[in-house]
Amino acid sequence: MTILVIAEHDHTAIKGGTLNAIAAAQKIGGDIHVLVAGHNAAPAAQAAAQIAGVAKVLHADAPHLAGHTAENLAALVVSVAGGYDCIMAAATGFGKNVSPRIAALLDVAQVSEIVEVVAPDTFVRPIYAGNGLATVQAKDAKKVITVRATGFDAVAATGGSAAVESVAATPDTGLSNVTGQELSKSDRPELTAARIVVSGGRGVGNAENFHKLLEPLAAKLNAALGASRAAVDAGFVPNDYQVGQTGKIVAPDLYIAVGISGAIQHLAGMKDSKVIVAINKDADAPIFQIADYGLVADLFEAVPALIAELG
Amino acid sequence: MKILVPVKRVVDYNVKVRIKPDGSGVDIANVKMSMNPFDEIAVEEAIRLREKGIATEVVAVSCGIAACQETLRNALALGADRAILVETDAELQPLAVAKLLKALVDKEAPRLVILGKQAIDDDANQTGQMLAGLLGWAQATSASKVEIAAADAAEMTVKREIDGGLETMQVKLPAIITTDLRLNEPRYATLPNIMKAKKKPLDTVKPDALGVDVTPRLATLKVAEPAKRRGGGKVADVQELVAKLRNEAKVI
Ligand SMILES: Cc1cc2nc3c(=O)[nH]c(=O)nc-3n(C[C@H](O)[C@H](O)[C@H](O)COP(=O)(O)OP(=O)(O)OC[C@H]3O[C@@H](n4cnc5c(N)ncnc54)[C@H](O)[C@@H]3O)c2cc1C
Ligand SMILES: Nc1ncnc2c1ncn2[C@@H]1O[C@H](COP(=O)(O)O)[C@@H](O)[C@H]1O
Q: Which of A167, A243, B79, B214 lies 20 to 30 Å from B242, alpha-carbon distance?
């Protein structure tokens, strides 16, 4: 078995989710190669070579690979796919965008967002917003898989010493071009990697409250900030804060839900957290059914008091 | 330009599904079914493009059992011009749906296909990207804004939701778009439009007639209920909360 993991990177460093995808690849077993495709991405290729458990790094460099468009990336992966039994990526925005295109070009099914490897061809994946866990067997000879990070402990980013091999870029498909990015900047830890997450919902009221109440709480706990979809739709915070079925999946040691009712779509993204705290003024809010520590209170009083109590 | 909008019939998003005791799947007998919420957004976007004079015709497509006609009637009531049901009782997985859609694209020659980013039952998030791959078209997934300057435009501008924020892309047409929640707010079907929808054309084809083999590539061996969380604990005040987090849970 030889497995190709498609690295997600910013041309310098490898993104966290890739380390979880490599961990899942190790569970399947076999030689693990990592593809780093980009433009002037040699530092990222070097970083990939350091990852524990990686046998080889394929490095493709060309201007039209800079934007990581699915069209160009999928064409490249298909050009090297002959040598692999299994092609994997993290189930992040990046992986979700490119992997199904690869699967279709190879005429194979994709197994999305696996959380467990049962056998090299059999995997567990959540369906219906995590209300069911399906065990599925992939019958195609070649497998295309995306990996939910919370299901696998990341491998170490260092300790390996894989060879880096150049591979030729496939021609530019010319189909799409990334012309701009608006990345939200924050001093807070990254949402999917943080040990503690503080999330706000519609109950927080507006963007100013979010900023005034939740940021100091997150700062005190060195926590990442998250949000419900309702908070995102109301414009309190950018979309990349969204936790849930159709947003980010998190499983921190501590998740604090403030002014969030606990719709199943939200629970899907956070119910595997180790400890859940809910602050909500409605004692019947569904979030309390899964919270370890529920505080029925007005958040406008409870959050400042909590910050004070933390000292 | 013609726009094709694939719409899936799924368990309504407000329903908390139950796993069958024998582990064979999810119990959907007597459960409310609706159009996949992302597909409502796709229909809405297509209709807005027609209202702006960019699109000439909006064709809704659903693949599945005869009851998917309801979903298609709903799309027609929202404003789609006509509908196609690819009827089969077979289990359809995303690759098979993408192949059926490709066959329809070959026949109908739309310049844009707008799908939902994800069906809320299988949570696959695959079909649009697969269809784009099969067609060799550009893809713009998780779109939160679509700008097409004219009916005969050679390309469009799409804003997409990505993990770190937003990304803007120039995308050659013909292309695939998949919708994210904030692309638009779908309208409600009015009673007169629901009545009118009953008279709009709805054609049915079979996968065989499209020359597509829909045999599943993934076998579902079992479906289990996730481990139940033992929640429900309450604290009286902030002091007790902090004390518990420090001394009992030891997470701060
Ligand atoms: C297809 C689809 C996908 C979706 N995906 C997601 C997703 O990924 N993530 C997600 O989060 N949602 C998602 N949603 C939306 C989801 O269904 C809910 O609408 C959303 O999670 C509700 O957010 P909320 O809890 O912040 O708001 P609400 O449900 O309005 O809850 C607000 C809560 O705040 C409390 N509150 C108000 N004022 C105060 C106060 N002063 N003090 C304390 N408490 C207060 C209220 O009691 C209430 O419980 C999705 C929906 C659809 C249709
Ligand atoms: N059976 C189907 N009929 C019509 N459209 C579908 C079907 N299955 C999936 N789709 C479309 O593909 C999108 C993504 O679905 P999925 O890849 O299953 O998550 C949906 O939002 C629909 O637009």
A: A243
